[in-house]
Design brief:
The protein is mostly helical. It has one domain. It has eight helices and no strands. The longest helix is centred in the middle third of the chain and has 32 residues.
Amino acid sequence: MMATTPVGQNSPRSPDRVAACLAGGFVVLLLATEAVLSLPDERANAASVATFYVAHRTFTIILQILGFAASALLGGYAWRLRRVDHVVSTAGMIMAVCSLLPGLVTLVTAVVADPVNPAAASRWNRLEPRADDVLFVGIIVFAAAVALRLGRSLPALGVLALLVAVGCFFRLGLEAAGVGRGSLDAIVPLSFLILIAVMAALSLLGVLGPGARHKPS
């Protein structure tokens, strides 16, 4: 008699090296671009913001272009996930689009910066936190999709994704309440990168490969 695969079990693993490279490339490129330059925060005065961006205009623009490339890699990985779960893939592509916004705001700030008339740069600089908020909402959507759709088959991944979603939610809540976010500003983005790195490894191992099928929670 021919054996059948029970519902909810994974079919034979097929590593997705392209997906792993896309996700791994995103993590490496994002870490590299974020580590080399610290931008003024939203409370910096207009003159210092304009002066900073004029002094670092070319470098800032190059970094934002690299950041857009990282978003493209993230979107590519999300697209590859369609063979694993369409909901997770769609949520990932939404997140990738959201990830473009902070870089776009920074790019415009660098372009309009003028020490003689610093108001425009300051106005765009104050929008940076709102752009970050949009990104964190996108991360919540993606992490929740991973937790709900893949968490039953991959409990550890589901727990990690849930922690990322909860961390982003609390960060947004603290910001809305005007309370200092403290170490969450570093921990939450790092936890997201860890989630993507873990998913990259699972894609490479075939756990999230083309042949994998996971029963949603």
